[in-house]
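Tokens as discussed.
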């Protein structure tokens, strides 16, 4: 029996900067998961992933990540994706420092 499709976002890493980025509904890449296009249809998800994979001069390693609807947009359902969106774990800077200041 086929597994039920769960909501997804297209995510990748920015080719030059290495940041985690997400595909928006208007074909932009954003560093904010809350702005990502939440995809509820498997066929549409496949098309969006193909679109992302064709942008080899911008992104590396695009894939579909499981999410659920949150108060401010998509929220990760897996620890890995929650961890990825906070930035590198080897030292305190960037997104981690900005979050601590808020």
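Sequence:
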């Amino acid at each position: 029996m086929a597994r039920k499709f769960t909501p997804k976002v297209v995510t990748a890493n920015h080719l030059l900067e290495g940041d985690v980025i997400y595909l928006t509904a208007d074909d932009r890449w954003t560093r904010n998961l809350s702005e990502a296009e939440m995809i509820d249809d498997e066929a549409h998800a496949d098309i969006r992933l193909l679109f992302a994979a064709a942008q080899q001069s911008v992104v590396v390693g695009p894939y579909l990540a499981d999410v659920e609807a949150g108060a401010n947009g998509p929220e990760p359902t897996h620890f890995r994706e929650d961890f990825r969106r906070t930035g590198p774990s080897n030292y305190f800077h960037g997104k981690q420092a900005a979050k601590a200041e808020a």
